[in-house]
Amino acid sequence: MITIESASQIAGIIGAITLLYAYAMISKGKLTNTSSTYHIYNLMGAFLVGLNTIYMGALGALMLNVVWMIIAAWHLIKSIQQKSA
Questions:
Q1: CB 46 within 8 A of CB 83
Q2: What is the pLDDT along the chain (85 residues), one digit of tens a residue?
Q3: Which of 18, 27, 46, 82 could form a disulfide with 68 if both were Cys (CB 3.0 to 4.6 A apart)?
Q4: Which residues contact 31 (CB under 8 A, 6 or more apart)?
Q5: Where are the beta strands (DSSP E) in 1-85?
Q6: From the CB of residue 21, how many other CB atoms can be counted at a distance below 10 Å?
Q7: Domain encompassing residue 67
Q8: Contact by Cβ (8 Å): 16, 45
Q9: What is the number of domains present in the chain?
Q10: How confident is the model at residue 83, as a pLDDT?
Q11: Half-sphere CA count of 47, side-chain side, radius 13 A
């Protein structure tokens, strides 16, 4: 049976992998900084790492991930609006 601690750790690991993948794809030129996909990866990754930081009580890291999610969500909305314009 999976514990809450294990689920938290798994969420954090998947989130970190997601953020690193987005960074790697930007670095390789496979995604652009205006790509909706890039912002979705950032939003999902920061959310999952944020879940882990909540469980671990790491308030500094939680604050970082909340701001990361806000930035990602803002740019995702802008990206979607530009595509529909």
A1: no
A2: 899 999 999 999 999 999 999 999 999 999 999 999 999 999 999 999 999 999 999 999 999 999 999 999 999 999 999 888 7
A3: 46
A4: 22, 25, 37, 38
A5: none
A6: 13
A7: 4-84
A8: yes
A9: 1
A10: 85
A11: 9
